[in-house]
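2024-03-11 09:14:02 INFO worker-7 job=invfold-0412 stage=load source=structure_tokens
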């Protein structure tokens, strides 16, 4: 039976490319989203994916949502924690609300989701948890204290949980994309974006499909020896 994979924020951008790549690789894929039902349902229907709407910030909604996916498709064996937001501001202007929204979505959301699938993965002796962090969690970014903190937090989350999962056949890894051509990056002002591209040695933004291929590799049986790692995919912009 094909494995079940869940991609949070899987109807747009990197998440959508990941969902399609996993489906192509033979998984049964559920995608989650939080915004417009029409847009996400249209994407899911067009590609034959199952789509579910709830916020990863809501623990109880995650409990119910994962239970529904498991009832519909079967036990979740691959979880891609991709959902993420930005609420950028210089620190002296950053509101507590902007801080909490980003931490709640990008970091606590990963706890909320992973907690639902972890017990089953331990029992079955197999699992893949793949967390989408960011280059800006590695190097820090002006105007993104909240985002950089959340994304750096994911790297620690991954390293700690990888050690807990290892003897149960569960791997936990982080991917740190550089700048990728999605709506999140298109929201960056044109001149700022050009300056960013000038700093990328390969001379271009990444494509969502390039991150999706990192995910399908880490999800595969062949990647079983890789856990607790940080896979950097940033066109050479920041070398760790
Ligand atoms: P997009 O803004 O294109 O898409 C974000 C997705 O996350 C959407 O599907 C959105 O759902 C979903 N989402 C947001 N908040 C929630 C929530 N509370 N609950 C459930 N789903 C939610 O983002 P990208 O594709 O650009 O980014 C994907 C991930 O990659 C993010 O974690 C981002 O931080 C990270 N990243 C992106 C980079 C880039 O250059 N693009 C670089 C480095 C990291 P909906 O469609 O319903 O709004």
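2024-03-11 09:14:09 INFO worker-7 stage=emit residues=240
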């Amino acid at each position: 039976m094909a494995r079940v994979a869940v991609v949070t924020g899987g109807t747009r951008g990197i998440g959508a490319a990941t969902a399609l790549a996993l489906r192509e690789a033979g998984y049964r894929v559920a995608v989650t989203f939080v915004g417009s039902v029409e847009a996400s349902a249209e994407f899911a229907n067009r590609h034959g994916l199952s789509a579910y709407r709830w916020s990863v910030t809501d623990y109880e909604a995650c409990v119910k949502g994962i239970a529904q996916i498991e009832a519909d498709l079967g036990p979740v064996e691959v979880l891609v924690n991709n959902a993420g937001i930005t609420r950028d501001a210089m620190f002296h202007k950053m509101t507590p609300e902007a801080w909490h929204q980003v931490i709640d979505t990008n970091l606590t959301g990963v706890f909320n989701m992973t907690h639902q699938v972890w017990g089953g993965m331990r029992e079955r002796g197999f699992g893949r948890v793949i967390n989408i962090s960011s280059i800006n969690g590695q190097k820090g970014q002006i105007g993104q204290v909240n985002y950089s903190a959340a994304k750096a937090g994911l790297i620690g989350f991954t390293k700690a949980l990888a050690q807990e999962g290892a003897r149960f056949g569960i791997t936990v890894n982080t991917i740190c994309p550089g700048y990728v051509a999605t709506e999140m990056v298109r929201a960056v002002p044109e001149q700022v974006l050009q300056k960013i591209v000038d700093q990328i040695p390969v001379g271009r933004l990444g494509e969502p499909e390039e991150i999706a291929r990192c995910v399908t590799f880490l999800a595969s049986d062949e990647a079983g020896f890789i856990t607790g790692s940080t896979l950097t995919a940033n066109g050479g912009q920041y070398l760790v």
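2024-03-11 09:14:09 INFO worker-7 stage=report msg="Residues 131 and 174 are 5 Å apart (CA to CA)."
2024-03-11 09:14:10 INFO worker-7 job finished
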